[in-house]
Amino acid sequence: MAAKQGARVRQRVAVRGGFVARGWLGSCVRSPRVRVRQEPSRKLSRRSRKEETSRRVVVHGLSSDEIDDLLVFQEPEEEEAKGECYGCGAHLQTRSEKAAGYVKRETYEAKKKHRQLNQILCSRCHLLCNGKMVPGIEDWGTRLIRGGQEEAGPSGSGGDFERESLLTPDELRRQLLGLKSKRSLVLHLVDLTDIQGTFLRNIRDLVSKNPVMIIGTKMDLLPKGSNVKDVADWLHQYIEDKGLNPISVVLCSSKSRFGIRQTASLMKKNRKGRDVMVIGAANVGKSAFIRSLLNEMSSMKSANYDVGAAQIRHKPVESDMPGTTLGIIPLRAFERGGVLFDTPGLHLEHRLIHMMLPSEVKSVLPRRPLSPYIAKTPASILFESKLVEQQERGERMSGVGDAEEDGGATPTGYEEDLLDDLLENPGAVEGASATYLWGDVARLDVLSCPMSTHLVFCGSKAMRITAQPLVKDAEEEEKEEETVNLWGDAATTDDSAEADVGEDLGGLTVPLLKERLRDAGLKVGGRKDELIERLLQHEASVSPSRTTDGKEDASLSSDGESSEHGLVSVRARGGLTMTKELVIQTPGYSGNAIQPIVDICISGVPGWITVYAKSSDEPIRCRVYTPRGIQTFLREPFPIDVIEY
Q1: Which GO molecular function terms does the record list (predicted)?
Q2: Which domains does the chain have, with CATH numbers?
Q3: Tens of pLDDT along 336-353?
Q4: What is the CA radius of gyration of the chain?
Q5: pTM for this model (two decimals)
Q6: What pairing do the DSSP bridges indicate for beta strands 184-191 and 212-217?
């Protein structure tokens, strides 16, 4: 008995930080003020042992109430959630509703009990599936809307999120570096509407020496009549010029499933037991491509049927929001081994969509095939400006009243003489020039060019094109004491601005007024004063809101959207600035036909501008204005036929 008592270890409490114990072997709770001191028990007499047992807890410097508070049982800390969201790959969590990967605690516990953690979709993915634009990556657009969130942060439209929980582009890139050592077949997705902005020039830094297949996505958005073989050959040549030798180039559409069967067949042929890694820039369509690929491999009617793909019930989520996927999603789509990896999209800062508000990104993305638009030529703008100058000098054309009655269809003798003079003596004038505004996110100034120059804007119909006489530089404007706003429209600071606009419209001919009405989708019938009044009402309805001092208000509206594409985000970045000055030489063509010379591409803008002209010794000089940090590229003309040669 004495030996057992000697071997017993007695716990005594001391106020020195650490633990506090109740009884000899009682339950312990953590406290910053007390700790347990363990020491071997000495031999005690029956009386001493009785006194020691009655006390049990010896605390120095604490009252009995404080001891009771310390000894109250405390709930254990909430266990950290495990697993990832199958829709976006974000780590599951049950703490913050405004962070990616959030799921209700009861939902998580129920799935965990039934071992179904791989079947959980986070709340952010639920919003994305319902058309909401909830960011997950920190970029310029999220920082911009975060700055105005305290005043107007629309829930589910980009303002209802925690900035601290957003991932950075560098964190996404580090996730991909972990796949560099894997033996895999790489499917590099390139957006056919924004090839220069989505092609990864340093792809070898991410995939090492693994074989690469180039997949051109969004084939359904190319202009109608595009030849698949010509586009594939053009893309293959472009990729090789950039120093990458792909094993194959395939064009496909996840929406119409065009080319998906051919892509699955080539992937199956070149995989050779390796994993498959799908990579690309943000918003290039990786998740949509994987969903279409799995649907093809799950169909028993397809020659590419695989049991592994058919067993996948929960597929990645697709949305218009750049950065939908936040983590690497492994999909066991191959029965004989191997994993299909859906990876986060790389955020390239030189793309326009990464500096726009989420609502603006959704509105600027095309839903239908790109539509080529032949803009008014610089020569015709020069001709019209000469007519207006002549009218301002008081030299009215003969038969103006007759022109107004029949819509101005019959050119007057003066117009014919002026046109003949411009065509016969092009050196007698300063040269054809014009300013083009493209969707309020880009501006092209043609400083001088041959009279045969044409510009074809191939883009979304929502990106409105406006042509006007060349806007002068800021230095020249200061000398003439004029002000020009960000978009190149003449702005006045006095109270007679509306009257000046009316006078400018009054100086235009009836055909020009009707052309403006057609561009705006308005009725073109009526007399000249009625046409002017209709245009004034339309311009007043679409003009940006102004503050009391006459300046345009660039703050966020209650719904986070602006009346123009990119207007708020572009102004917050400092407006449009000159990013590139171009001198384009027209090559010597045989014959006298108009030929495509070069494409001008703006990173992140779906579409491009094709420059057409006849062979001439005179170069085409122009300047490109974009938001700060957005890159401009030149490339060989895309193989589409717009102007018959």
Answers
A1: GTP binding; GTPase activity
A2: 82-134 (no CATH), 165-348 (3.40.50.300), 350-386+430-471+567-644 (no CATH)
A3: 889 999 999 998 888 988
A4: 35
A5: 0.71
A6: parallel
